[in-house]
What we know:
Order of helices and strands: HEHHEEEHEEEEHHEEH
Strand content: 15-25%
Mean pLDDT: 84
Number of helices: 7
Structural class: alpha+beta
Number of strands: 10
Radius of gyration: 26 Å
Distance between the termini: 43 Å
Amino acid sequence: MPPGAVFATKPELAWKMIERAAGDVLLSFGWVTGHEAYGDNPVLRERCPGRGLNQVFAVSCDHPITVAGAKTRAGRAVAALPVSAWQRYSCGQGAKGHRFYDWAWITLGEHGSHDWLLARRSISDPCEVAYYRCWSSGSVALTALVRVTGARWSIEECFQATKNEAGLDRYQVRKHIAWYRYVTLVMVAHAHLAFLSGSMTAPPTTQGAHGRTITAGARKPHRPGRVPAPDPAHRQRDP
């Protein structure tokens, strides 16, 4: 490890990253989000409002909250909600289309504080409920909180794709400098692949004499009794 490096918990490391991003004049973002390891950390949650950063953090079912002056737990408060409190929304596109869940929120604090407990319930299994602690500097709609909650999926997919396509977790090094260089190179490679994938366009097509679609670079149809010639080497390599 580099000289001067000391142990730090995940929430402490996260706050350093958040501060670095918030202090960068070239970056702009509206929300901070994370899973339970960060949401159940009260210090991290209190630091974000101090810098005016809106947040949606996942919390555990026994997360302590205060509703209308009474102390309770997240799971208990959500279980007491009426059926009419739940609304169905998509939190974004997934691998198989829109990801629909049932959502409900509870206002926390007093005097119009923009502090909520958000609950996400599975449609296929109503017993599967996730909880989120939310705060914003102003009034927001439930759909906005749902959108931020769903943004974590794309981040997790990004990590998974970087591992599968570029080998993010395939390093075989033991020193910090070598690891840092490897991870940085993999992230740059994945960003380059994402750029190429987003900029690719379909090859131009035209209609043949019999209404068939002809794609540029496609081989000519095979005629009976005629042996087709192999494609040139450069055609074989051409994507």
